[in-house]
Amino acid sequence: MKPKAKRYNFEFWFCVFCFLFWFVNPVCGASTGSLFGDAPQKKSQTRIGAVYFSDGNVLTGEISLTPGRSFKLNIPKAGKLKTKDMVTGEDVQYGKVRRFTFEPVREIRFYPEKEEMRRNWKFVETTKYNEETAEADYSPAAKAYSGQPYPLRYLAATVIFNSDESLQGHLYTATVYLKTKEKTYRLVLRSKQRGGQGTTLDELVYVRRIKLLDEGKNIAAKVTVKFSDMRFGPKDAVQAVTKESLTPIPTKMTGSDDTCVVESAFGEEFYLAVRKDGKYIVGWPPPATSGGRPKEQDKKLFAIAHDHIQRQRDFYNSKELLGVLVSKDDREVLTLVSLRRKVAPTHFGEIGGEWDKELGTVVEPWRLSIWRWKYDRVNQELILSSRGTFFRIILLPENPTPEVVISEKLWQLQQKDDTVIVGQASRKEP
Questions:
Q1: Which alpha helices (H) appear in 352-404, and where do they start and end?
Q2: How far, in Å, CA of 38 to CA of 327, rounded?
Q3: Is 204 in contact with 195 (CB distance < 8 Å)?
Q4: What is the H or E stretch that residue 24 is in?
C-alpha cells in the first residue's frame, strides 16, 4: 500500500507569507506605515580627527556624526528673550541654540563646569503625633541618605570654527562615531555625567577634546550682503535666518547704504528680511502659476497649512499665513507667518497681551517668523518641527499690525566668494 502524499495548504501559507511581507514592509499598506514614511538616507560628513580623553588616552581616526544629525549647542548668554527689537540694541537674541556639523569645526573642547559627590536620599517624616491628645509637634521632614556616594559632573563646551570664531555653551547629547584601524567606537557626548555608586570623579572618564586634523570646510567669519537696487536709512535694518536650523544670526549695517554684514553663519545659507520705511519685506518665491493663476496644488497646500497654523496652540493668538513653500522631496513645508498676541476681552476680563514693566501697561508682541513642518502628502498632515524669527517688536494695543511685503528680489541671492548679491536679476515684484 502506497503512503499518502503529504498535502500542503497552499492558501494558508500564501496568506502567512503576505502577512509577513506586509508586516516587514508597512509602506505597502495604504496608510498604515509611519506618518512620513522612511526618511531618505543622508550621508554623514566624515572627517579625520583625534579624540582626547580625561584619563590621558588619545584615539585617532575617521570621525562622524549619526547620518542626518547635527550638533546642537545651547548658548546661555545669547541675550534676553524679551526685547523691544530683535535687530537693534544690546538685548538682542541671536539664537540660543545653534546647529552645526563637523564640516565647519576645527576643535571642540569640553571642561567641567561643576563637579560633586552625591548620595541617594529621600525625605523621611519625623512628625510625632499623640493619639491621646491629638497633638503633633510638626517636625520638618528630614533627609535620609542611603547607599555609597557617586560622582556627578556638568560639562560645558567651547566650539572653535575654521573661521576663527568660537561659541561657548552646553552641548545637547550627541552620538559620535570614531573609526580607527582596530575598531569603531561609539562615543556619546553628554553635558551631564553620573557615575556608579562607590566610584570617584577620576574614574568618570569624559571626552576632553575633539581636534579635527584635516582642513574641513573653509568658511568666512563674515558674509557681505550687497543690495543691487535697495538703499537703507538709519532706522532701517536687515535680518538673516539660517536655512537649516532657522536661527537668527547677527546682521550689521555698514557705512554704505546698500551693504550689510552677516556674521557667524558657520557655513549655513540664510533667508533675508528687511525693515524699510516702516514696512517689513521678506524674500520669498512667488507661487507657481498656470495661465496667470496659482496652481490648484498650491491652493490646497496653502489651505492645509492655514488650517494647521490656526489649530496650533501658541502664545500668539492672532496668526496670518503669508506664504507656503514645499521642499523638493515633498517631505517638508515652510510657512511664513505674521504672529501677534492680541488682548481679547472676555466675560472674565481682558485676556492676552503681555505686561511691560518699563511702559507700565499691557502690550502686544508681534513676530515675523518662518515655521518648518514635516509633511505627509498622502494623509495631508503637517507636524511643526522648528521655528525661526526675523523680527520681534512690542506694540501697544492701538497700534496696527506691521505691513509685510513678499519680495522675489530678496529671494534671489547670488554668492560670489564671501559676498552675496541680492536682487541682481531684473524681475518684477510679485
A1: none
A2: 16
A3: yes
A4: helix 10-24
Q: With beta carbons less than 8 A apart as the criterion, state whether 249 and 241 touch.
A: yes
Is 133 part of a structural domain of the chain?
Answer: no
Lookup: cell for 329? 522631496
* Grid coordinates of 303: 489651505
Total residue length of the chain:
430
Query: What is the SS3 assignment for 311?
Result: helix
Residue 89 pLDDT more than 90?
no
24 in a structural domain? no
Element at 194 (helix H, strand E):
strand 192-194
SS3 content of the chain, % helix, strand, coil (to 5): 10, 45, 45
**Going by DSSP bridges, is the β-strand pair 293-294/166-171 parallel, antiparallel, or unpaired?**
unpaired
Domain boundary among 190, 212, 234: 212
Exposure class string for 285-295: b at 16+ Cβ within 10 A, else e: eebeeeeeeee
Q: Please check whether residue 257 lies inside any domain of the structure.
A: yes
Per-residue pLDDT for 9 more than 80? no
Quote the DSSP letter at residue 202: T
DSSP string, 271-310: EEEEEETTEEEEE-PPPPEETTEE-HHHHHHHHHHHHHHH
- pLDDT for residue 322: 93
Residue type, 228: S
Mean pLDDT across 159-176: 89
Residue at which a domain ends, from 212, 235, 264: 212
Coil, strand or helix: which one is 9?
coil
Phi, psi of 95 (to 5 degrees): 85, 105
Which residue is associated with the grid cell 502577512? 19
Of 266, 281, 232, 241, give the one whose Cα is nearest residue 390: 241
Q: Which domain holds residue 291?
A: 287-406
| C-alpha cell of residue 412 | 534671489
- Note the pTM of the prediction, 2 decimals: 0.68
